[in-house]
Design goal:
By secondary structure, the chain is an all-alpha fold. It has a domain at about 15-50 and about 120-280. Helix content is about 75%, strand content about 0%. The chain is built from ten helices and no strands.
Length: about 280
């Protein structure tokens, strides 16, 4: 289905743009051996985590998320609260839903795994090394994110799809004062942490266990990109999700993938607030 609202694209899609995008993606691929060498130095031995939970628990967590969405929406409606007119309300509501779902996930880990919630990657030992690997991985994947974005714009525009404004990025331009500070806290600190706990801490180990390292990381990345429901953002999100998944696979520490996620969100918000290019990205 085509989007009905056209956002101004900062770059005119063309075959030349697509070729530049492909080169940028290959540039990140070329950095993989260097990253692997850094990973070997920082974290010489990779731990293997066995997920004690199953797909039933994943399904239950997803069901709980949607059930809470419906119930919460009804409660707000009965209270006369319209999220669409409350500025940051939608983001706060979404963060609350994610927090509730992650609390359920943590209860599963606490009950099913002898290591408790540490099995989700919440381990203190190796935090610094994991964070450093995450930061280096983000620097390496930035060209692929940009390149995937260029390829995505060219491909979807060629197929006749229209770009859709990125509402979250537009929101930060509309907010001021304390509301903007709350937005920054949620978008850079809270939401990335909650998403990483669910996708990389909870879902990925189970998929890796059943599909192997590459299959588990790739499928988790596909699901992560898909839930954001934006055709034009799918490929860039998939690229960064692969990086987050590989960092988590190597470190088995949420902090590594969280650093990648938080750096990316922070950079995107900085671009939107500080540059014309970023404001065009926000539609």
């Amino acid at each position: 289905m085509q989007a009905t609202e056209q956002a101004a694209l900062p770059i005119e899609p063309s075959l030349a743009v697509a070729l530049v995008g492909a080169v940028l993606v290959l540039a990140s691929v070329a950095l993989v051996p260097a990253l692997r060498g850094l990973a070997n130095r920082l974290i010489p031995a990779r731990s293997v985590v066995f997920a004690r939970w199953g797909f039933f628990h994943v399904g239950l967590a997803i069901f709980a998320f949607f059930a809470l969405t419906i119930v919460g929406g009804l409660v707000l409606k009965l209270a006369g609260i319209e999220l669409a007119t409350s500025g940051i309300g939608t983001l706060l509501f979404g963060a609350g839903l994610q927090l509730s779902t992650v609390a359920l996930v943590m209860s599963f880990a606490h009950r099913l795994d002898p290591d408790g919630i540490r099995s989700l990657g919440l381990r203190a030992k190796g935090t610094l090394e994991s964070a450093l690997l995450g930061a280096a991985s983000y620097v390496a994947v930035v060209p692929a994110i940009v390149g995937a974005g260029l390829l995505s714009v060219w491909a979807w525009t060629t197929l006749g799809f229209e770009s859709k404004p990125q509402e979250v990025l537009r929101l930060v331009l509309e907010l001021q004062g304390a509301e903007r500070l709350v937005f920054l806290l949620l978008a850079i600190v809270v939401i990335p942490f909650l998403e990483e706990l669910f996708f990389r801490g909870f879902l990925q180990p189970l998929l890796v266990q059943n599909l192997g390292d590459r299959g588990g990381v790739a499928v988790t990345a596909v699901l992560f990109a898909a839930v954001h429901a934006n055709l034009f953002a799918f490929l860039p999100l998939f690229a960064i999700a692969l990086a987050m998944g590989l960092v988590m696979l190597r470190t088995q520490r949420i902090v590594g993938s969280y650093v990648v996620h938080a750096l990316h969100n922070g950079l995107m918000i900085f671009l939107v607030l500080s540059t014309d290019f970023g404001r065009q990205l926000a539609g």
